[in-house]
Amino acid sequence: MNGRVRPVRPVLHVVGTRPNFVKAAPVVAALRAAGCDQVLVHTGQHYDERMSDVFFRQLGLPEPDTDLGVGSGSHARQTADLLTALEGELTARDPALVVVYGDVNSSLAAALAAAKLGMPVAHVEAGLRSFDMTMPEEVNRRLVDQLSDLLFATSPEAVGHLAREGVDPGRVHLVGNPMIDTLLTHLDHFDPTAARTAHGLPERYGVVTLHRPANVDDPEAAEAAARVLTEAARLLDLAVPLHPRGRAALGAAGLDGAPGVHVLDPLGYVEFMSLVRGASAVITDSGGVQEETTVLGVPCLTLRTTTERPVTVTHGTNRLVGHGELVPALRKLLDGDGPQTPDEGPPLWDGRAGARVAAEVVRWLDHHV
Q1: From 75, 211, 262, 315, active-site residue
Q2: What's this model's pTM, rounded to 2 decimal places?
Q3: CA distance 250 to 245
């Protein structure tokens, strides 16, 4: 605490999914240290205890002031439910600033509800672009950026995207990556040997995370993903933690029970990152995992044709692959012919992004409230 008295109206954070929690933790902690009154609203978009509550405990986030318990549904239905629930919450709380994270439906609904109520919005992880409008996340992130008064970018190219879209540069701040703050804070707690042993994995193994609609929602796409992962498991045992939607789709496609494939229940943050840290390779469609493997120096094959995080390709260990490229790329990687990680991470991925966000928020509050 610095002894300053912050405005009575709170800063209200909206989180709904595991990546949101990881990004919010350092920002909430830094604003707490600055003396800000804060409210944490959990929308319940991820509703499995292993996918939310355990993350709060492990990341040191305070218990949510409100859990809206919205749950799953189609994109339209879930977003509508979120809008209705968040409108009531925002009206009751009357925050000085609404902070949203990433690109999920909770982020869009919170930004839209706040904008309709005339409340200012801050977007942490602004400016990322895959330029693939078939991705729901791309739609969300573009709209949230247009609605935001403060935009916190994780990388220089994100700042460039916002400039080309006509966003006032005075609203944009390059702060680094708060997800990496969380990773570096907990790095000493990641124990690959214990995690590998707990799940019966051999010394050399891979980790797979798939959740994007392009890989799991369409039955044909799920079958293609299951087929190529089954083939990849002949080269390397694969630990595959899946949340319910992905498990149902990929299980129906034949992944569950394939030789060398270890389908796991959802894992807490420390357990998951322990597995990732010790992996010989990671196969993913997650943006956050692309970032985490870049900093950990773990080779990553991203099962997508585009990425909104190109810095992980140009600066890290990440490579984009299609289904037909995955197994040859994995074989090449296991033969020691993979990309090399630079000694330093991307700019400002140094564990202090949360403090930079907090400093800009405090400055904004002092000027506007």
Answers
A1: 211
A2: 0.93
A3: 9
